[in-house]
Prior knowledge:
The structure holds two protein chains of two kinds.
Chain A: H1 7-22, H2 30-40, H3 44-51, H4 56-67, H5 76-80, H6 86-97, H7 105-110, H8 119-134, H9 142-152, H10 156-163, H11 168-179
Helix pairs in contact in A: 1-2, 2-3, 2-4, 2-10, 3-11, 8-9, 9-11
Chain B: H1 2-11, H2 16-43, H3 48-55, H4 59-72
Amino acid sequence: xxxxxxDEARTTVRLAQEEARRLRxxxxxxxxxxxxxxxxxxxPAAEALREHDVTADDLRRRVIATVGPPEDALDxxxxxxxxxxxxIVRQVTEASFGPGALDSRSQKAAKSGHIPFAxxxxxxxxxxxxxxxxxxHKDIGTxxxxxxxxxxxxxxxxxxxxxxxVNLTDLRDDVTRRIAPEAA
Amino acid sequence: MNxxxxxxxxxxxxxxxxxxxxVRALRELAERLEALQVGNARDQxxxxxxxxxxxxxxRQAVHKKHGSGRRILGKER
Lengths: 184, 77
């Protein structure tokens, strides 16, 4: 399924899995795909999201607010009220002790397990292929993935974007302009 | 970090729910850091006594908390 995905798109899929793992969710949902698109930082999807002021941190917060934090999770928002930036704590501990140094035992145990795609995420990936074909492109990039996600339209990712005040039509036009100026 | 500033302002609202949640978060973070540092100290050959002195707790307390769990996980590899 991933043969035609660009490196960036593959990275995004891998990061989506990491996001799910980090939030200790047992599936890769559209929300994890969306966060991953923002995390990647470059390419059409990331640029379009940035243009609409959508950041990975904000998305994570909203996902947690919607589905609830995992049981013994670190709570970055609560730490921020004390002036503690969890990301910085994470960075410095990982610099000394390696990736996942701050993870709890149960998280470490979950590290190795395979996390499956949720139904809607599979749909998003299929739709990204269709978006690529529709535009007459050979590869599937992050832009096509975001278009697929927007076309699926009913996952948590789309809901969060709407709650965030993002106009999905504008976002779709914006991404399309970036990957296929002639089609926009 | 605008959200942080906003959250800090919320914290000064004296809302117990905000303050208590922050304490809980800090405790969880401290627990993670303690487990990490104790594990590292043991890996470097520190005795429970030495670790206990640094943490300001009794040797029994630190051993009880970190000793058995790590053995169960087969940490003494």
